[in-house]
Amino acid sequence: MSAELIFVLGPGGVGKTTTSAVIALEAAARGQRVALITVDPARRLAQALGQERLPHRPEPVPGVDGLDAAMIDRSEAWAHVLAQCISEAASLSVLKSNRYFQSLVSEFPGSLEYVASDVIVGLVAEADYDLVVVDTPPATDALAFLDAPRRLGKVFDGEFLRLLRGGGGIMSRAARRGGGVIRKVLATFVGEATMEELAGFLQLMQEVLAYMRERSRRMRALQYRPETRFVLVGAADTAQLGDLETFRNQLSQRDLSLHALVVNRLIAEPPDEASCRKAAAGTGLEEWATRHQSLIAGEAARQRRRVAEKTRWAEGLPRYTVPCLTLEPRCLEDLARLMPHLAQPTASPLETMIP
Fold it and tell me: Measuring CA to CA, which of 20, 113, 215, 314 is 20 to 30 A from 306?
């Protein structure tokens, strides 16, 4: 049985990585075997888990039974892809040293997203996990990540692969045959040595591209499984809260359904005025406590009204609210304090707070 899959999406700086970690921790606490993966090259997930760095392949998080974590490393992911496709050490060495391949790995748009698909497909297919939680890159990059399998399928379709084959490929044929109009024209612009290097790259990449194409098909199929969920994260204290509906609409355009909304950094409502005065009794700060309570209560009410207005589109969708923290979570204990807020949806819809 393949693992369930959760993609955590949202703008940058809204607590998306923290949310991913808490979801994974909460699932592990319920006895599930969980792999927590980040595609974001920043090291926020490692910091949230109290680690200096995370490995490319999931490894156990110290102090948490059932939870493994990893940060996808582009170079290691490509090395795994090559190992699946090229068995000859000599051919592998030639390809790795080829400048076109090096450019593909380090500079080609979507390179990380393509190989990340390979990693996630492998983890879901393994029997090691019940749940895989993916912390995606911020906003636009997250959509690019979800679109990567579709883009790869269009670019590396059967016709494209056929053209790259050594026997019938236009570029390979032009590069390897002496004479010919195509070769002469191309050689004029790029040079003979470059033509040979390009031809070698295309020849060696045939199986790699075919492998990536197949993995991309599987990744796209995973996105549409009933066992796959999409969680959107926003922050109550950012202007990006209003962008969440657009993000939801962009998912809908891809025929992907949002499964939950998480609103972070909600100001906690203070105790009532009587409780504040009682707590300050005998200190001489009774009036100050009352004024402070009034200020915080007013700010909290205004924020809730704003959140309610900006998330009307989410009516009927499970919503979770997480209070504003004094400091960003830096250890497992900090994350554990947030677990109750993501264990159950908010009981009362925020819409009811609008007068």
Answer: 20
Q: Which of 127, 132, 129, 117 has the alpha carbon at shortest distance from 24?
A: 132
Q: How far apart are CA 142 and CA 119, in angstroms?
A: 16
Torsion over CA of 62, 132, 12 and 346, rounded to 10 degrees? -90
Sign of CA dihedral 141, 329, 304, 237: negative
pLDDT in tens, 94-142: 888 877 777 777 766 667 878 888 899 999 988 789 999 999 887 667 7
Q: CA 6 → CA 9, 20, 38, 344, distances in Å?
A: 10, 9, 12, 16
Q: Which domains does the chain have, with CATH numbers?
A: 4-353 (3.40.50.300)
Is the pTM value of this prediction over 0.90?
no
Which residue type does 300 have?
Answer: A
E strand or H helix that includes residue 45: helix 44-48
